[in-house]
Every structure is written in C-alpha cells, then in structure tokens.
C-alpha cells in the first residue's frame, strides 16, 4: 500500500525541468475597454488540467458588480479557458482577474508562483455629460454629524443594481443606501443601524476577501490607526468585521493579490510612520498582523494598485505628501515589492486614480494634489517608471481624484473634488491623454469625493457626489447621447423598393419599463448577408432617429457578448439575429438582419424596450422622421423616411409607415 501511494505521488508531481505554464494572451486585453456582456478568456501555452480551475484558483471580481460567476469552458485543445458571466457587468467598472499558482497544465506543471493577474474596464454607452441632479440624500440620522468622506459603489444585495456605502469619519461607520432597482437611479433611505468602523475612516476598496461570493469592504481609519474589513452578508448589510492596527495616521488603501495565491491582500499607506503595511489574507478572509516595507518616498498618503509593467503581477503606486513624490513599487509576486525611482507628483498627492488615459497600453496615475490645488497626471512608461507630471488647475484644496469614461467615447475622463472652492470639476480626455476643462458642479457646502457609477443600468456613468460638511450625497444622472455611429444628419441609405414597407412605432409610457420602439424595414433592395457585416466578432449597430434633419436618439447592439449565459448574436443561414431579454445598454432587445438576393426580399427588425430606451419627446415630432441603421465597420446603411401627416402622433404614441 505504501509503495502504491509513492507511485501515485511520483506521477502527479511536475516533470523535472518542465517549463512553467504560461499565459500567452487574454481577452479582453489588459487595461482596455470591453462590452458589458463580454466573455473572459485566457489562453495558455500548454493544455490545462481542467480540475485545477476552481473557485479559489480562478477569481474574477468587478468593483461594482462584485464576484463574477458564470459558466466555464475549455477550448483550443484545453489551452483556452473561457468564463461566460451569468449576468452583464456594470458600465465603467474595473474588473480584476486573478489566477493563482495552483493552476496546472495537463502534465501537472504549475503556473509560476506569482500567479497571473490582469484587469479591464467595462465600456460605457455614449452620453453627453449633461448631469441632472435627481436627488440629494442626507447621510445623517437624527441630525447627528457623520462627515461623509466618499463611498463604495458596489452591488451589495446581488440584485444587479449598484448600491452606495458611505464611509464616515466622525460617526465612524458605514451607511448603506440600496438602489431602488427600478431604473430611476434613486436609492432607498439608509439601512439602519449603521455598521461601525474606525474613527476618521475614509479611503476604501471593495473585494471578496473570504471568497464567499459576497462583496466585502475594507477601509483605512486614520485616527484609530488601522484597517477595518467588513464582510458583506449579501443582503446589503455586513455580517462581521475585523480590525488590524497598522500604525500612525494611515490613509490610502490598496487591494491586490501580492503572493500569487489568488486571494486579495491589503496594503495600507501609514503616513505617520512613513511606510506601507502589508496585511496577508489567509484565504478565509482573515488577515494577519501587518509587516512593513518602505514606500520609496516620504509620507505616503495616496495609494493604488495596478499592473504598471504588464508582467501579470499587480504593483503599487504611492504618492507622498512630504516630498511631493510618486513611486511605483513593482510586485515581485512573493509578497515583496521593489521601489522604482521617485517622480514628482506635481503637488501634494492625497488620492490617486489609475488607468490608461492615452491608450498606449500602460497605466497612468492621476493624483488629486490637496493643498497644491491641482490635479497631477503622471504617465506610466510601462517599465515601472513614471514620466514628469502635467498638472491641471483647481481652485482650492483637492482631496480626491477619479477616472472614468463619462461620455462613452472610449477614453478616461477626470473628475477632481475641490473642498475649499465647493465644487467638483470635470476634465474631458481627447483620447491621447490631454485634458480640457469641461464643467464645474457646485456643492451644497464642500466636497470630499466623487463616485462614478451606473445608477440606473442604462450603460453610462452617473455621479454620486459626497459633501463632507453638508453630509449629503448629490445623485447626478448622466443624460444619454446618441451613438457615435450615428451621423449628425441623415445620409443616403438603402431604402425599401416600395412605399409603405417600413414602419416605426414609438410608445412613451409611465413607468418607463413599458417604453417601446419597433422598426420594421421590409421589401429591401438586393442585400447579401455580408452587407450586414459581422456582428458576432467585429461590428456594432445603432438605429438612429432623426426629426427635421436633427439627430434625436439611438438604440443599438454591440458585437459579440453574452446574454443570459448565451451568445447575444446568432448566425443563421440567411440572417443574423440579436436577442437580449435584459436589453442592451441602450434598450435593444431584438435585432434581426435578413438577406435578400433579389429586390424586395431583404428585411430588418429592431425592437427596444424598457427603462434603458431613450425616447424623444413624441409630442414634438414634426417630421420628416428618419430611421437609419448604421454599423461600425462601414458599408451600406439602411433607412426609411416618415413624413407628416402621421398615422398616429401624440405625447404617448407615434406610429407611421414610410414614404
């Protein structure tokens, strides 16, 4: 019996001298944008041992969505691992993917001890950055001060809608506002009682620290001198917490896997001791006593985590207020870090937002530079070093910095908070990382932070703006703009070969969940299936509506994606079809594009429904109304014109057939 066991162990051991299992590609590509319905695929250089892919060895976490579950498949001779999420990701969120060193090849060779990590951002739909205040929520109970200092935007109760957890300095607690989950973008009153944390808690990060499928929250509490980890119960409340003291005046906090075991560890910036504290996760969500290492600069305050040299190991970016320096600390994958050369942050960095602002594939750092009254953009060079800062002006103390695609154009815009001037300031990105002033949003008193989230599940980024003196959260809804696929005015498109063969129906109901758009285009001219492009892999579509030559709105469907666990697009012999019962970010539920090899046989149907659908003011339609379907890959467009008098036109219903 003992000899048999030894033989089994020998066969299971990695072959001596065998090359370590390596990741050769990821989809989405690291640091890029991907649709909300994306699948997540990792391709290796060797066939995998499927049994080594477990809930512990392969983890996906969306900062807004929370732990990402779904179906796992193996392809390409077991070299490609694909996760199809069971529900759509949230617009604008960063998604973290971690593979542990327990992943094995078919011959039992292991992934390197550091594991492998990458991130991507969920794309947002086009919007015009016109923010309308729909609520201002008080953070107080019985009038008692809380000094709200930002919030976590994440789905705490697994209903598919993003909730808010305010983090409060004076009341030393977390306060939960659950999303009403009706598409309005509004939140229920505070869940009571609040959940206690340390005094002067402010920096915060979500994570699933105990791997139970529920989102937890970690905060750094300055006056209490440590980190509080609050475990989510999955219903909007917190079940338990752990506190770990880290030293004098801790501030910034980062969540990352430092040692390749797949679970999320914590690093805290301890300003008073001018060092960083590492809290290792034991795998069950329990953190050990801190160990310490240098920040590479004097007085660490701002802290963030990202892969700064694209080696698949998550690194740290620290900003120090005493010497106004920024430093990249490259992760070694074994719980240690190597500090790179310091670079000026452009001022006193209080908070850092990380992302690729110029599309070069390298992560950049955008600092809120406190008493220096500016924002400092420090570009990453891709090797762990940083370029010289470029600053944008702010009118006063600037405690917070956030990046997100506010207009859906595929780049990261910048939101900075100004405490002394009582405003939040938006800078818009030109795609190359050059920022231009866009607008100021005034505060009731004085801001602490801006939280970027999709409050209404319409696919764009809205704002939740925390005011630490008024103790309120302004809820600002981003007004949707038409798709960039839509020309500003109608163009020449293929039209039906006979009049009256296209129809358009628009219904504007209350509540919005009953809104409806149906466009039928029949009796089309000769159109091959290839004329429609390839929606399975490359081409996005937008149905654009015009009135009197002016672009009003659009609805559409992006290429690829997963809907209810299945591909959104289906390829058929003579047609391609899209079906999404939850609706695309712009409200499309059905699209069918059918070929016709002779005149009069081609047809198109587009259906949109529900709260995500943006309808124009139906009572104002005077005509001619034009509907045109455009796609991203170029090629022909398809359209029809509807002229007055219409068959039906009032504030609730528009219905007509084409000229």
Descriptive notes:
The chain has 659 residues and is mainly β. Helices cover 2% and strands 44% of the residues. The chain is built from one helix and 52 strands. The strands form twelve sheets. It has an eight-stranded antiparallel beta sheet, with no helix packed on it. Strands 2-9-8-4-5 form a five-stranded mixed beta sheet, with no helix packed on it. It is globular, with a radius of gyration of 26 Å. The relative contact order is 0.10. Mean pLDDT is 94; it is low at 1-16.
In short:
With 659 residues, this protein is mainly beta. The protein has one helix and 52 strands.
- Largest β sheet strand count, sense and barrel closure: 8 strands, antiparallel
Helix content: under 10%
Total count of helical runs of at least 4 residues: 1
- Sheet with most strands: strand arrangement: 45-46-47-48-40-39-52-51
Rg on CA atoms, Å: 26 Å
Q: Extract low-pLDDT stretches.
A: 1-16
Which word captures the global form? globular
What value does the average pLDDT take? 94
Number of strands: 52
């Amino acid at each position: 019996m003992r000899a048999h066991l030894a033989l089994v162990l020998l066969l299971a051991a990695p072959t001596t001298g065998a090359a370590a299992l390596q990741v050769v590609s990821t989809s989405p590509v690291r640091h890029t944008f991907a649709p909300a319905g994306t699948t997540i695929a990792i391709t290796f250089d060797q066939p995998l041992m499927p049994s080594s892919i477990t809930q512990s060895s392969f983890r996906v976490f969306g900062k807004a969505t929370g732990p990402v579950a779904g179906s796992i498949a193996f392809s390409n001779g077991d070299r490609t691992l694909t996760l199809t999420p069971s529900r759509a990701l949230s617009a604008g969120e960063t998604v973290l993917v971690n593979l542990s060193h327990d992943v094995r090849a078919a011959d039992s060779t292991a992934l390197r001890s550091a594991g492998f990590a990458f991130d991507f951002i969920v794309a947002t739909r086009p919007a015009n950055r016109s923010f309308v205040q729909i609520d201002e929520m008080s953070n107080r109970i019985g009038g008692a001060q809380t000094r709200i200092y930002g919030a976590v935007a994440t789905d705490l109760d697994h209903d598919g809608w993003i909730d808010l957890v305010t983090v409060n300095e004076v009341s030393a607690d977390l306060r939960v506002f659950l999303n009403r989950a009706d598409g309005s973008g509004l939140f229920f009153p505070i869940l009571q009682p609040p959940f206690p944390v340390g005094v002067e808690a402010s920096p915060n990060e979500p994570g699933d620290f105990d791997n139970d499928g529920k989102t937890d929250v970690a905060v750094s509490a300055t006056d209490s001198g440590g980190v509080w980890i609050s475990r989510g119960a999955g219903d909007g409340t917190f079940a338990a917490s752990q506190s770990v003291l880290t030293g004098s005046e801790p501030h910034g906090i980062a969540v990352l896997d430092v040692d390749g075991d797949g679970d999320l560890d914590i690093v805290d910036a301890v300003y008073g001791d001018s060092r960083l504290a590492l809290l290792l996760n034991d795998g069950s969500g329990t953190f050990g006593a801190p160990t310490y290492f240098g920040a590479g600069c004097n007085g660490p305050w701002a802290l963030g985590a990202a892969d700064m040299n694209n080696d698949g190991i998550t690194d740290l970016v620290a900003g120090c207020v005493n010497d106004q320096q920024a430093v990249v600390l490259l992760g070694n994958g074994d719980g240690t870090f190597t500090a790179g050369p310091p670079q000026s942050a452009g001022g006193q960095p209080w908070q850092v937002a990380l992302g690729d602002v110029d599309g070069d594939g390298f992560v950049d750092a955008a600092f809120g530079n406190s008493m220096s009254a500016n924002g400092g953009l420090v570009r990453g060079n891709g090797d762990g070093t940083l370029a010289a800062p470029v600053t944008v002006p702010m009118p006063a103390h600037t405690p917070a910095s956030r990046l997100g695609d506010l207009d859906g154009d595929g780049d990261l815009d910048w939101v900075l908070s100004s405490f002394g001037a009582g405003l939040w300031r938006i800078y818009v990105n030109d795609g190359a990382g050059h920022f231009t002033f866009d607008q100021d949003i005034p505060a009731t008193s004085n801001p602490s932070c801006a939280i970027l989230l999709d409050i209404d599940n319409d696919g764009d980024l809205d704002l939740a703006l925390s005011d630490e003196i008024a103790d309120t959260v302004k809820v600002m809804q981003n007004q949707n703009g038409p798709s960039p696929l839509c020309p500003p005015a109608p163009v020449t498109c293929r039209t039906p070969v006979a009049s009256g063969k296209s129809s358009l129906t628009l219904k504007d109901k209350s509540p919005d969940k009953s809104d409806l758009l149906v466009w039928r285009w029949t009796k089309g001219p000769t159109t091959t299936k290839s004329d429609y492009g390839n929606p399975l892999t490359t081409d996005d579509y937008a149905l654009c509506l015009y009135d009197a030559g002016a672009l009003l709105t659009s609805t559409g469907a992006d290429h690829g994606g997963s809907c209810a666990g299945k591909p959104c697009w289906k390829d058929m012999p003579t047609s391609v079809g899209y079906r999404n019962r939850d609706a695309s970010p712009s409200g499309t539920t059905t699209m069918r594009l059918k070929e016709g090899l002779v005149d009069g046989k081609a047809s198109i149907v587009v259906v949109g429904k529900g709260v995500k659908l943006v309808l124009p003011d139906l009572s104002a339609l005077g005509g001619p109304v034009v509907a045109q379907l455009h796609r991203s890959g170029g090629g022909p467009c398809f359209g029809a014109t509807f002229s007055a008098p219409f068959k039906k036109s009032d504030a609730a219903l528009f219905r007509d057939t084409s000229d």
